[in-house]
């Protein structure tokens, strides 16, 4: 049973006087509403309402019902297949690498606490402090052999110019490295915080039982921070599948190298801004939303993300 | 338990949704206050301000816009959505966007045939307004044009004992010889709009021949296209042409290392690329007309770049004012003579060239070649709504073949397929 309230036999509750139950419940209900209220408002205003409007836009064109025309047009667009392939490849490369980097660095930090740990945390976090378009510009220099501090490495990989680094399939590699560097730091801090909050007695018990650092990590720490890992996954999947800023800005550095419809989100943006077709843009955005929700749902149910301590059979 | 599942779904939805954001709107409508709303890029700002000063009776609001590809269509698309906020005059740093803005879907660009007298329009360089013309109507005025010429390093030519080629056959011969005798030397760059605009554009290969706003002629099977493939094939094999984009900082190593023997490129390369970007010292670069294609005696020029001005179809009572501003900005000889790039207006180009002729950067006066190129723009290079795909599909097919040593003639077939798909998606019928 997964519920926040303590399980109580219904029979006992029924025999209780009504007034006593009310007195006990109302402050709790109020607290719940205070905590959930602002979130609900934001969800409706900036989540559900725009999604509803997008649904309307994708079916109604100039006040008349357009049927599934926009949807059909989107799924028949030759650019969608390419864009979806690009994004899936990117996710397949980026998500595992990101997750492994985050987990290994966070666990290493936690396993060897010391003075250097906090300094290292900052170091890991720093690349994440430069995000979005600024990061893309920074990386444009990183992949240009003439200005990059990694010029010898680039030369080794036969990259002679930024054109080389950003043309064809190599752009996915650049985006992956970029994505990991930008996103890993923040998640390491989050995960390290979660590890620090783990009950000391459990970890000590493992130590007393003679568990190695590896076993402690694998069998004790990881299951306990499972929900955080799930959160990292969902958020990263959402941002990764909607990758937009990085390819857009990288393409300004080497125009014509990266297609303006490289990612699915860019395609939706192109529909709205260059084709003036908001119906198709809305349809594609909703399709993206469906993919994101589905992925999130799978992760949440698989990791029992909302399982609470009381119901968790540890 | 069900409740929590629903909540988790909602939470997941929120997480996904939070990825979307919007950029703040700029501009706003000039309507309410009756002021003339003008969008220009940074370079055109002083000119717009000069007009404002000269016309104290015209209430103007000048907004600076970035010269980024797609910026103006993006903003106009949003204005169309909200049905307000259109600029009365807009400058296009990418004139191909005129095809988007004049299209029925956007309905932004107003035809200028009745607003700008024919005598004025006739003063533009022949063929330069083709970019603005769809189905017989002119939707924009060109500010500047970017005809291609054959830039070459006069010092290297002399040192190596080569002649400046007059035909593409000679060009190929010289290129192969240079690659053989002086390894690393390049005679051209094939990438994106540079490769497609310079070589295929000057050959008259119909990659984007706009017949109207809804019809485009694309046919890469003809000899006008295959001869370009045949020209580039051996040069690519010997690495006499590079696939590095000229605006890539990495291109400078060719200039610094005395490796640029020739570079067919647009007029603006002379002032903005060879010195500042490629670091070629002064007194070396000179311009020759483009080589001629077999069976022709006129050196036709391709095009890469240039700007244009549009008047809004929503300007209402300010339409006349808007048209007057556009006319002045593009045709005022004194103003245009001071512009950084080759003016589209013939009289202004002449005056502009007087200063250029004396520019000590060049090994010899580049104006004869530039003027000849401006007067020999190859017809059939139209403004299309699939400009970005035109570039990336060229890179995906022809440039890829150049890079990998593939057969260029064969790559034309796949380029044709991609161009057709892009054109159809943009609402064109392909003929």
List keywords for this structure.
heterodimer, A: 314 residues, mainly alpha, two-stranded antiparallel sheet, 2 strands, flat, disordered N terminus, B: 431 residues, alpha/beta, 5-stranded mixed β-sheet, 17 helices, 42% helix
Topology:
The complex is a heterodimer of chains A (314) and B (431).
Chain A: H1 10-15, H2 18-59, E1 60-61, E2 64-65, H3 69-76, H4 78-111, H5 115-129, H6 132-142, H7 151-156, H8 162-166, H9 170-196, H10 200-208, H11 213-224, H12 226-241, H13 245-253, H14 264-273, H15 278-303
Chain B: H1 2-17, E1 36-40, H2 45-54, E2 60-64, H3 71-82, E3 89-92, H4 97-102, H5 118-121, E4 133-134, E5 137-138, E6 140-144, E7 148-153, H6 154-160, H7 168-181, E8 188-189, H8 192-203, E9 209-210, E10 215-217, H9 223-237, E11 241-242, H10 252-256, E12 262-266, H11 269-272, E13 285-288, E14 307-311, H12 319-331, H13 333-337, H14 346-357, H15 367-374, H16 387-404, H17 408-425, E15 429-430
Parallel strand pairs in B: 1-2, 1-3, 8-11, 10-15
Antiparallel strand pairs in B: 3-14, 4-5, 6-14, 7-12, 7-13, 9-10
Write up what this structure looks like.
The complex is a heterodimer of chains A (314) and B (431). Chain A has 314 residues and is mostly helical. Chain A is 75% helix and 1% strand. Chain A has 15 helices and 2 strands. Chain A is flat. Chain B is α/β, with parallel strands linked by helices. Helices cover 42% and strands 13% of the residues of chain B. Chain B has helices at 2-17, 45-54, 71-82, 97-102, 118-121, 154-160, 168-181, 192-203, 223-237, 252-256, 269-272, 319-331, 333-337, 346-357, 367-374, 387-404, 408-425, and strands at residues 36-40, 60-64, 89-92, 133-134, 137-138, 140-144, 148-153, 188-189, 209-210, 215-217, 241-242, 262-266, 285-288, 307-311, 429-430. In chain B, the strands form 5 sheets. Chain B has a 5-stranded mixed beta sheet with strand order 2-1-3-14-6, with helices on one face. In chain B, strands 12-7-13 form a 3-stranded antiparallel beta sheet. In chain B, α2 links the parallel β1 and β2 (60-64). Chains A and B meet through α2, α8, α12 and α15 of A and α1, α3 and α16 of B.
């Amino acid at each position: 049973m997964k519920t926040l309230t303590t399980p109580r036999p219904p029979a006992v509750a029924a025999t209780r006087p009504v007034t006593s139950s009310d007195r006990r419940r109302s402050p709790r209900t109020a607290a719940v509403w205070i905590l959930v209220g602002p979130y609900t408002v934001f969800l409706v205003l900036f989540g559900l309402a725009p999604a509803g409007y997008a649904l309307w836009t994708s079916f109604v064109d100039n006040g008349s019902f357009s049927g599934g025309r926009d949807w059909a047009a989107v799924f028949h667009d030759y650019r969608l297949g390419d864009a979806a392939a690009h994004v899936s490849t990117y996710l397949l490369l980026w998500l595992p690498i990101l997750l492994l980097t985050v987990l290994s660095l966070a666990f290493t930090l936690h396993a060897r606490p010391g003075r250097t740990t906090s300094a290292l945390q900052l170091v890991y976090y720093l690349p994440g402090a430069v995000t979005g378009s600024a990061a893309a510009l920074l990386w444009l220099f990183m992949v240009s052999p003439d200005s990059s501090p990694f010029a010898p490495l680039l030369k080794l990989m036969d990259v002679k110019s930024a054109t080389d680094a950003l043309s064809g399939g190599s752009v996915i590699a650049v985006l992956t490295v970029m994505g990991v560097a930008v996103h890993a730091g923040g998640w390491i801090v989050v995960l390290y915080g979660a590890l620090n909050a783990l009950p000391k007695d459990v970890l000590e018990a493992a130590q007393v039982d003679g568990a190695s650092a590896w076993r402690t990590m694998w069998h004790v720490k990881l299951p306990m921070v499972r929900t955080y890992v799930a959160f990292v996954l969902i958020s990263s999947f959402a941002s990764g599948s909607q990758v937009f800023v990085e390819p857009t800005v990288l393409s300004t550095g080497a125009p014509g190298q990266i297609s303006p419809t490289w990612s699915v989100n860019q395609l939706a943006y192109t529909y709205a801004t260059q084709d003036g077709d908001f119906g198709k843009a809305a349809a594609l955005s909703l399709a993206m939303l469906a993919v994101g929700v589905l992925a999130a749902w799978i992760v949440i149910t698989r990791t029992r993300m909302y399982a609470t301590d009381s119901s968790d059979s540890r | 338990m069900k409740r929590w599942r629903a909540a988790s779904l909602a939470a997941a939805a929120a997480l996904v949704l939070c990825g979307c954001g919007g950029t703040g709107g700029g501009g706003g409508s000039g309507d309410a206050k009756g002021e003339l709303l003008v969008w220009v890029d940074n370079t055109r700002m002083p000119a717009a301000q000069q007009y404002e000063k000269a016309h104290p009776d015209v209430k103007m609001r000048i907004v600076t816009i970035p010269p980024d590809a797609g910026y103006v269509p993006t903003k106009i698309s949003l204005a169309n959505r909200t049905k307000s906020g259109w600029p009365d005059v807009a400058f296009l740093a990418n004139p191909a966007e005129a095809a988007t803005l004049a299209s029925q879907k956007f309905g932004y660009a107003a035809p200028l045939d009745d607003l700008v007298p024919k005598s004025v329009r006739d003063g533009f360089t022949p063929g330069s307004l083709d970019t603005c013309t769809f189905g017989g109507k002119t939707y924009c005025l060109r500010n500047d044009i970017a005809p291609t010429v054959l830039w070459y390093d006069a010092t290297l030519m002399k040192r190596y004992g080569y002649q400046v080629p007059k035909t593409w056959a000679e060009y190929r011969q010289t290129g192969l010889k240079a690659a053989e005798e002086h390894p690393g030397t390049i005679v051209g760059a094939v990438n994106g709009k540079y490769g497609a605009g310079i070589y295929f554009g000057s050959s008259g290969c119909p990659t984007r021949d706009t017949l109207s706003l809804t019809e485009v002629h694309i046919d890469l099977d003809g000899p006008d296209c295959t001869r370009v493939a045949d020209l580039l094939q051996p040069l690519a094999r010997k690495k006499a042409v590079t696939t590095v984009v000229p605006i890539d900082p990495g291109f400078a190593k060719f200039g610094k290392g005395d490796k640029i023997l020739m570079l067919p490129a647009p007029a603006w390369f002379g002032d903005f690329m060879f010195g500042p970007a490629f670091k070629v010292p002064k007194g070396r670069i000179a311009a020759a007309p483009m080589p001629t294609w077999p069976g022709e005696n006129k050196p036709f020029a391709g095009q890469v770049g240039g700007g244009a001005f549009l008047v809004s179809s929503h300007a209402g009572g300010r339409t006349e004012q808007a048209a007057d501003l556009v006319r002045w900005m593009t045709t005022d000889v004194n103003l245009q003579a001071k512009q950084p790039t080759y003016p589209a207006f013939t009289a202004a180009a002449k005056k502009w060239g007087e200063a250029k002729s004396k520019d000590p950067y060049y090994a010899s006066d580049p104006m004869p070649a530039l003027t000849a190129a401006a007067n020999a723009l190859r017809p059939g290079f139209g403004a299309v709504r699939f400009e970005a795909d035109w570039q990336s599909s060229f890179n995906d097919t022809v440039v890829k073949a150049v890079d990998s040593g593939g057969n260029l003639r064969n790559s034309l077939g796949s380029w044709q397929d991609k161009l057709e798909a892009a054109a159809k998606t943009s609402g064109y019928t392909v003929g």
